[in-house]
Design goal:
Elements (H helix, E strand, L loop, with lengths): L1 E6 L4 H16 L7 E6 L14 H9 L2 H17 L16 H33 L6 H10 L4 H9 L4 H14 L6 E4 L3 E4 L4 H15 L11 E2 L5 E2 L4
Helix pairs in contact: 1-3, 1-8, 2-3, 4-5, 5-6
Length: 238
Amino acid sequence: MLVEIWSDVVCPWCYIGKRRFEQALQAFPHADEVEVIYRSFELDPTAPAEAEETVLEALGRKYGGGPTAGRRMVEQVAQVAAQVGLRFDFADAPHTSTVDAHRLLHLALAEGGPQLQARLNEALLQSYFGRAQSMADHQALARAAASVGLEGERVLEVLRGAAYADAVQADLDQARAFGISGVPFFVVDRKYAVSGAQPTDVFNSLLDQAWSDEHPRLQVMADGTVCGPDGSPIPAAG
């Protein structure tokens, strides 16, 4: 069963939704048969590579109220994050592009599969939300990549060029085709979707429904006497 998660590494609800989904997956009896892949989404495609403002200033500008209102929004989401064991401290994080971070996530997927990609995604989220590091800073990105075992020279080679930009764009194009306008967005086997950082029980239902759809149980229309393993007749139930 394939779960694709469209998300951005500077999206607080993506991190919260990730934790809630992981809780559901941990309780799912067929978790070892689930493959999770992270797909690219840019919350702000116009964000610069070089920081011009903090996240507080960007939020205050976008929604009104200035940095004071921005801080209030950050504090509110941090309270929700704490409920799933996350400590947010990103008020002073720079507001920058996330394209290079997404390119590294595709590098990790190509070189180490979904598990390595998942570890890098977690490392990038921790870097941004836990340490307020820029997701456009190549040194910060390289440290996160090194922490999960990606080869340093290969990481720098990707960051200096445009490798995997086409893969990022393909994810963005697919998001547009699906009508995705916000993240996180969870898609199972390209049949079922859940939008937003839903409660864990919603993800439980999503996984159960998708699994049942792929592994339907037979509906016995009539029940009669049959032979058991030793040849003895077994009467019909009821």
